[in-house]
Design goal:
The chain is α+β, with helices and mostly antiparallel strands. The chain has helices at residues 6-11, 17-28, 34-37, 40-48, 70-74, 114-125, 148-151, 232-246, 276-280, 285-292, 301-312, and strands spanning 57-61, 80-84, 94-100, 103-106, 111-113, 138-142, 160-166, 169-177, 193-197, 204-209, 212-213, 250-258, 262-269. The chain contains 11 helices and 13 strands.
Length: 315
């Protein structure tokens, strides 16, 4: 279906951008909390105090002269990821998966010289990828090795799980799978596949690419109907913990399942997109209103996760 009427969207409880911005982001997100989620380094430090694990930090580059230490740090590493602390939408992230003599191998399979990586670090410091172009900090993290059960569905990129958390309750989730169109990145706007996940079980519901329904991954050819996320309850509790860590009432929590370390937090988003509704085939509004109507909120992350699994699980 190429078009759907506003009346039907309303009946489905679809949250639109204006309502999201006014009724949820502006109302429930304190401006003072934004720096915590708009800066990946600050996010890592903040959530660590609440038992939320993130990829291991290998190096922080704050000044130009610190780039000279990069080659020495990376010499013995099989892989790593370079990220701008204040980047958004996956911009400026470079993932290295191996070495070939004097060259590094990117996730796409292409080779890149150390001098090019150093130039990339310089661009990050200059604010090329940061919000509003402000000077930035580069962080180098341990390479995430996706659990094989999920990695097989993704094309040249690590799949991640976006969970929308409202007032500490995980209300909707989707799996994002990289594609050739998305250049190996789990970004729906660039062509990644979004797979709606049942909050109650972590199993796949529906799948979309470019907001159109699909049943097979366009590159791997695998069916998307029987995906089952490992450690689902732990992931929901981890997402719920981010509420205490940041104080943000409405946010997106992006997680991965590492083959060795289990669930890890990649980043937080104070302005999560709305495509998650298309992937789930369900609107956010009824779930948000259910949480708003609670007379006795649950105090612990585990209690909130368990409530969400019971209240919003697929029938």
């Amino acid at each position: 279906m190429d078009w759907i009427s506003p009346r039907r969207l309303n009946r489905l409880g679809m949250l639109n951008m204006n309502r999201r911005n006014v009724d949820y982001i502006a109302r429930y997100n304190e401006r003072s909390s934004y720096p915590l989620v708009d800066n990946k380094l600050k996010t890592k430090l903040a959530v660590a105090e609440y038992g939320v694990t993130t990829p291991r930090l290998l190096q922080v580059v704050r000044q130009q002269h610190e780039i000279s230490h990069f080659r020495e740090m990376a010499e013995g590493l099989g892989g790593f990821a370079i990220k701008p602390a204040k980047g958004s939408g996956g911009k400026g992230i470079t993932v290295i998966t191996g070495r070939d003599d004097d060259y590094y191998i990117k996730a796409s399979g292409s080779r890149i010289a150390a001098s090019d990586l150093e130039r990339h670090l310089t661009n990050i410091l200059a604010g090329l990828y940061s919000l509003a172009g402000s000077p930035d900090v580069a962080i180098v993290e341990n390479l995430v090795e996706s659990a094989p059960s999920l990695a097989k569905f993704s094309y040249q990129g690590v799949p991640d799980i976006r969970i929308v958390v409202f007032q500490g309750y995980p209300v909707m989730a989707m799996l994002r799978l990289a594609t050739k169109d998305s250049d190996g990145k789990a970004n729906l706007h660039q062509g990644a596949v979004g797979v709606g996940l049942d909050i109650g079980t972590g199993r796949s519901l529906n799948a979309v690419q470019f907001n159109r329904p699909i049943t097979l991954h366009p590159d791997t050819g695998l069916a998307l109907e029987n995906i089952d996320i490992e450690a689902w309850e732990d992931m929901l509790e981890m997402a719920a913990r981010c509420y205490e860590a940041t104080g943000l009432g409405y946010m997106g929590v992006d997680l991965v399942v590492d083959a060795n370390e289990g669930p890890l937090l990649l980043e937080l988003n104070a302005r999560p997109g709305l495509a998650i509704q298309m992937a789930n085939g369900r609107g956010l509004l009824p779930r948000l209103r259910t949480i708003e109507s609670l007379k006795r909120p649950h105090f612990t992350p585990r209690e909130r996760a368990n409530y969400a699994m019971d209240a919003f699980g697929a029938l």
